């Protein structure tokens, strides 16, 4: 284990030490702690993870470009005093955080009060003065990543970069080259078509285009004037004489449907078509195009007191009604997003890139522990635990009580830690790391581990005064 903290800190001299040498020093401290047989704090509170392998989403592999920025310069050191003095601008090179957004940081368009403070703690306003790298991993979507980051920056009073952000449809960009004409469903107005085209999709059809071409498609849905004007003329655009000349090669549900009835009708029509040809009906009901949902959350945390229905509910309806209307034929659809392990693998690559470009952690190994903070056991906790089961590094799930999870109930997928808010989650993770790593207190230029009592105190978030005894730090 390592944290980027200097093993030696000459008084009043600017530090120039690299992350890796900080890491070496902490590895050394960790070995001493291990030799003491020190228990990690809070392990008795760990709920046994209930793992279940994730279902059928297509594997996502991607490169995600982020703007190159210089790492923050290290600040000059201050003389060591007792108690531990925070050092600004140290970067944790051995652990990181990843956050779900809705129900953790934001609810109903407003920040959850503790979220702003939690971000400050990660950005160095903690008793150790350490900055901790973090990314956001939301199943939500329906906007450009840059737009969502701008919103998040305002809400959380920090700068959020697309280089640290993954939303539900981000991995869909990988499919832009694979298909020609696709149906894109969900979101406000033309937004998801715009997003899909920005991903490189060449021919994006929307439900509005189909309703414009044949108003009888959904008997109770009438396009508004604006929708009619924004929807495209499918026949002219495809140089087709009839709609059955147009083949939909895949369906992508980018964001939540704004009109479930007509979208459901159109998705099912195409799922039951002859090879994706509009307005046709298959005799075998097994030749429709693939259908991809950007996530599978049945519920999500919005402004209403109770969780609201999400895209996962639409997915279930599509599959169920397909079966009901085809004499029992099964429809297999795909979902990205959490809890798919491929989404967490995507997040791992993004985090690695973000640590390198933003924090200058280019030479270091991936973080030994990634703390994932979420509010939905079925996606956040399930996915984190599944990732932890197959990953070399540790994925540590933390469930908060500010969203979908109902306090007092038994979560279907058990987190490693249950806390009230995201601020508690951040404090828990940082303190757990600090306790594991020992104090960075130096005496005579040496790194010294904490003794049991001091370790317990730090683990509980206290900042006692220390003194040196037998090469350990103990409570003064
Ligand atoms: Mg959530």
TrEMBL record:
GO cellular component term, pick one: mitochondrion
Lineage: Eukaryota, Fungi, Dikarya, Ascomycota, Pezizomycotina
UniProt-recorded name of the protein: Phosphatidyl synthase
PANTHER family, alphabetized: CAT EYE SYNDROME CRITICAL REGION PROTEIN 5 (PTHR14269:SF4), CDP-DIACYLGLYCEROL--GLYCEROL-3-PHOSPHATE 3-PHOSPHATIDYLTRANSFERASE-RELATED (PTHR14269)
Chain residue ranges for the region called Disordered: 1-78
Low complexity bias locations: 47-78
A GO BP annotation: glycerophospholipid biosynthetic process
Matching Pfam families: Hydrolase_6, Hydrolase_like
Protein species of origin: Chaetomium globosum (strain ATCC 6205 / CBS 148.51 / DSM 1962 / NBRC 6347 / NRRL 1970)
Transmembrane segments: none
């Amino acid at each position: 284990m390592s944290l980027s903290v200097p093993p030696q800190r000459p008084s009043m001299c600017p530090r120039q030490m690299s992350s890796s040498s900080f890491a070496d020093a902490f590895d050394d401290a960790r070995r001493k702690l291990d030799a003491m047989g020190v228990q990690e704090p809070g392990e008795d509170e760990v709920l046994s993870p209930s793992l279940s392998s994730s279902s059928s989403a297509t594997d996502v592999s991607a490169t995600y470009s982020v703007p190159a920025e210089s790492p923050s310069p290290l600040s000059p050191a201050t003389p060591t005093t007792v108690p531990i003095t925070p050092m600004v601008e140290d970067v944790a090179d051995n652990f990181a955080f990843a956050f779900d957004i809705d129900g953790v940081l934001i609810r109903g368009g407003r920040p959850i009060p503790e979220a702003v403070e939690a971000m400050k703690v990660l950005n160095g306003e903690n008793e150790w003065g350490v900055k901790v790298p973090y990314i956001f991993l939301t199943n939500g979507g329906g906007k450009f990543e840059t737009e969502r980051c701008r919103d998040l920056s305002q809400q959380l009073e920090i700068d959020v970069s697309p280089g640290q952000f993954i939303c539900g449809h981000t991995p869909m960009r990988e499919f832009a080259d694979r298909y020609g004409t696709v149906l894109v469903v969900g979101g406000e107005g033309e937004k998801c078509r715009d997003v899909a085209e920005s991903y490189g999709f060449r021919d994006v059809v929307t439900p509005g285009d189909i309703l414009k071409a044949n108003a009888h498609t959904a008997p109770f849905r009438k396009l508004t004037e604006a929708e009619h004007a924004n929807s495209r003329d499918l026949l002219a655009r495809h140089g087709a004489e009839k709609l059955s000349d147009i083949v939909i090669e895949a369906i992508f549900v980018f964001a939540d449907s704004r009109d479930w009835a007509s979208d459901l009708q159109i998705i099912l029509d195409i799922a039951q078509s002859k090879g994706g040809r509009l307005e046709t009906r298959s005799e075998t009901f097994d030749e429709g195009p693939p259908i991809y949902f950007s996530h599978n959350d049945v519920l999500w945390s919005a402004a209403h007191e109770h969780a609201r229905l999400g895209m996962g509910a639409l997915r279930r309806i599509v599959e169920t009604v397909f079966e009901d209307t085809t004499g029992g034929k099964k429809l297999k659809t795909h979902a990205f997003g959490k809890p798919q392990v491929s989404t967490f693998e995507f997040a791992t690559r993004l985090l690695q890139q973000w640590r390198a470009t933003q924090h200058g952690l280019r030479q270091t190994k991936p973080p030994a522990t990634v703390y994932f903070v979420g509010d939905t056991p079925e996606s956040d906790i399930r996915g984190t635990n599944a990732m932890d089961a197959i990953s070399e590094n540790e994925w540590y799930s933390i469930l908060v009580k500010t969203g979908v999870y109902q306090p007092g109930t038994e979560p279907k997928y058990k987190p490693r830690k249950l806390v009230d808010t995201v601020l508690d989650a951040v404090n828990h993770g940082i303190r757990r790391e600090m306790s594991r790593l020992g104090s960075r207190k130096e005496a005579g230029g040496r790194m010294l581990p904490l003794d049991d009592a001091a370790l317990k105190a730090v683990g509980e978030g206290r900042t006692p005064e220390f003194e040196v005894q037998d090469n350990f730090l103990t409570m003064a």
